[in-house]
Specification:
The protein is α/β, with parallel strands linked by helices. It has a single domain, classed as Hypothetical Protein Ychn, Chain: A. It is built from four helices and five strands, in the order βαβαβαβαβ. A five-stranded parallel β-sheet has the order 4-3-2-1-5. Helix 1 runs parallel beside helix 2.
C-alpha cells in the first residue's frame, strides 16, 4: 500500500476557479486519512503559491471561502505545498513572494526521483 500521495497541479488553470477545488480538497482528505501528501504546483498553477493571488480566487462564484482558505485548510491537515522552480521566473517571483504554506521550491528532478525511486508513492495529476 502507498504511504505518500503526490498531487501535481500542472494543467489546472487558476483563471478557472472551478478547477481548483478538487485537487486541493482531495489532498486535504488524503491527509486526514493519514497519508503523507504533497501538492506540487507547476506551470500555470504555480501562481497559486504567490502571496496575494489565491486570496482573490473562489472555487464557486459568491462563495465566502477563497482558494487560499482551501490551501490553508489543506496545510493545517498536513498537506505540504511546493512550487516548481521555473515558476519563479515565469511569474517574476522570489522565494520571499511565496505563501507561508509553501514548504519550498522543487525542480523536475525532484518529482521524477520521488516517483521513480519510491514504490510507496502514488501520483494524481490535474
Amino acid at each position: 500500500m502507498a504511504d505518500k500521495l503526490i498531487i501535481v497541479m500542472a494543467n489546472t488553470d487558476p483563471r478557472n476557479g472551478e478547477e481548483l477545488g478538487a485537487p486541493i480538497f482531495q489532498a486535504t482528505v488524503a491527509a486526514a486519512m493519514e497519508y503523507e501528501v504533497e501538492v506540487i504546483c507547476t506551470a500555470t498553477s504555480g501562481i497559486l503559491m504567490k502571496q496575494g493571488f489565491a486570496e482573490n480566487l473562489v472555487v464557486k462564484k459568491g462563495s465566502p471561502k477563497t482558494v487560499y482558505d482551501f490551501i490553508k485548510d489543506a496545510h493545517e491537515a498536513g498537506v505540504k505545498f511546493a512550487c516548481c522552480s521555473p515558476n519563479l521566473d515565469l511569474f517574476d517571483m522570489t522565494k520571499d513572494d511565496l505563501i507561508p504554506e509553501c514548504s519550498g521550491i522543487v525542480g523536475g528532478a525532484y518529482l521524477i526521483e520521488e516517483i521513480m525511486e519510491d514504490d510507496s508513492v502514488r501520483v494524481m495529476t490535474y
